[in-house]
UniProtKB/TrEMBL annotation, chains A, B:
Organism the protein comes from: Vigna unguiculata (Cowpea)
Database matches in SUPFAM superfamilies: Terpenoid synthases
Pfam families: polyprenyl_synt
Source superkingdom: Eukaryota
InterPro entries cross-referenced by the UniProt entry: Isoprenoid_synthase_dom_sf, Polyprenyl_synt, Polyprenyl_synt_CS
Gene Ontology biological process terms, A to Z: isoprenoid biosynthetic process
Name under which the protein is recorded: Geranylgeranyl diphosphate synthase
PANTHER family, sorted: FARNESYL DIPHOSPHATE SYNTHASE, GERANYLGERANYL PYROPHOSPHATE SYNTHASE 7, CHLOROPLASTIC
Keyword set, alphabetical order: Magnesium, Metal-binding
Gene Ontology, cellular component aspect: cytoplasm
PROSITE patterns reported for this sequence: POLYPRENYL_SYNTHASE_1 (PS00723)
Amino acid sequence: MSLIHDDLPSIDNDDLRRGKPACHKVFGENVAILAGDALLACAFEHLAASTKGVSPTRVVRATVELAKSAGAEGVAGGQVMDVSSEGLSSEVGLERVELIHLRKSAALLEGAVVLGAIVGGGSDEEVERLRMFGRCVGLMGQIVNDILDVTKSTAELGKTTGKDLVVDKLTYPKVLGMDKSKEIAQKLVEDSKEILAGFDTPKAAPLCAVTNYIAGKIN
Amino acid sequence: MSLIHDDLPSIDNDDLRRGKPACHKVFGENVAILAGDALLACAFEHLAASTKGVSPTRVVRATVELAKSAGAEGVAGGQVMDVSSEGLSSEVGLERVELIHLRKSAALLEGAVVLGAIVGGGSDEEVERLRMFGRCVGLMGQIVNDILDVTKSTAELGKTTGKDLVVDKLTYPKVLGMDKSKEIAQKLVEDSKEILAGFDTPKAAPLCAVTNYIAGKIN
């Protein structure tokens, strides 16, 4: 696996530790909002204009997936649920926090994986199996993120931690406690790898490496 | 023409005069930003998922057009230029204000018309002629908007007027004066109708009606 890890783009930890200011800090909130809109449109343009050699039918199908993963049923809708749930009692339960995480984070990973599968010529059955993989890893990644916000210092993580507690965000540790959250994350890692086991091993290796990379952050 | 006007959706002037609060006033800025993102994604989903009977090649081509009209080269980029130009001297000139208006407003009209032309099966030549029509009407509409902001009262227009002056926005009246602005708007109306004259008259009638409707606001 080490070779595969070497192939992943490296992250400049010095940059992370220094903490680069976000877009809205540098250019103002109005420009940051418009940059977000422009980049969202750019994603669709890239998909439609740059996928030479892919049948237009597949490009149209991928466009629907991208829109669903970004829009009201995906990241944007999940983020609305997330900010609307701040301060809610943990009694609202696992179902709600899981739905938020599935929309906000898992939809993004699901979209990324499914788009690759569609554009890469995957069969319907392969696309649906990879959808489940993306959903598992996305949910796992958000649970890991929730855990790190509690267990790591700002210096260790390279971004401000403890933020979820400050705004009383609905997270897995809040609803289920730390041990149960780690257990669920581990189960999702196993589920993800089980799904990948059905694919050609060398081709699935990068997805396996990403899974290990995210899961490894809480160890 | 009166029949065609009757076919246009009517605007409830009482609602306009009462002044309904905007999304960010009712739901907060964070939710309004996310609603914008979700609706942008929804436009692409609608185009890709709901255009039955249209060849995927045309849908992909329309997707590129939609992205360009909304993104960095279109509305979002034009709006960035617009807010960045507040307070600039009128000496920056006509070229800059025209570029802002072409991106911010004309790109939207151009996109709307071109998408219809592509999805409706127009030839390349028809698409490009309608693109010029959309650009003319869009630019004309923005100049009309600039003029109304100066000449009409808030009660007459149903929205707050005089706002451009408050933030010292770069507008046609500011750069060229009122008479010259009206003259250019009128010339654009004539150009628009000349382009439409090349199409089947009954089919082009709604576009002609929209042109008259917008232009009529300054008379």
